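Today's session is about reading a structure prediction critically. Students often jump straight to the picture, but the first step is always the sequence itself: look for stretches that repeat, for charged clusters, for runs of hydrophobic residues. Only then move on to the predicted structure, which in these notes is written as discrete structure tokens rather than atom positions. Here is the chain we will use throughout the hour.
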Amino acid sequence: MLNMIGMAVSVGVLIAPYALLHSLDTHSRTKFIILALTLACAVLFWPLALYFLLAAIVPAFIMWRLHQNKPADATHWLPIAIAPLPAFAAILVLLALFANELSTLSSEALDELYAYGTNVPSMGLPTRDKLGEAIASTIRISPALVYVSVALVFYFTERAYYAPQDREARSRIIMPMSDLFIGLLLASVLLLALPYVIGDNTLVSAIGMNGLIIVVTLYFFRGLDIIRFHIARLRLSPFLMAAVYLLVLIYWPMLIAVAVVGFASVYVNIIRHEETKS
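Below is the predicted structure for this chain, in token form.
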């Protein structure tokens, strides 16, 4: 039963934001149906319902409210950057309140995994210390990972819902970037480098890494917009954009390359139309 609920929540996080935006604009009853299903899920297993609330329902409402001032406009960075914040904040609170419990659970999971790995030599597990550090690092950057996963859903949701139907007009939607992000990027890099000067500091490193992942993700979205713009400008096949998405999924350096394109485009004129400044 729990597995089925988990699968339903995972699918719901992908499709519910679009349905909620449409329901809020058209005043349909879909939003009430989604809320009722969330309450039913809460009765069975409240953590998944809470995740769905913070990762889909609340962000969709935030995006809808932010777009009320700029109807049919998908060019601003605020909706995409702000929508994931409730889920991000919830993970921070969870880590702060249950740090000891999470440490115990991760230690037990590490013991079970390592015990299983020693009985299956073909797994080729690293040493226990390295495996433990990998698990600890994943937990430390979990707020950023949650932020990125929600931001991805709402980036594509916003492009699908608010973008104009005309392909040429849609290709011209490029997310502007506030000067604030270059400051956040430099601050994150500085925090990552700081432990090498003042000595090992897990908290400082975690803050720097989470900040870096979030800022790079937002530049990555801009990079996707730039690539889509040039594919449309050169009248290339739309399947080329699908190939870009596939490469990003299976070849992680491509993700960095797209983010670099997004970062460079802020300071180098590689597009041929006037953008709305954020």
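Discussion point for the tutorial: Residues 47 and 222 are 33 Å apart (CA to CA).
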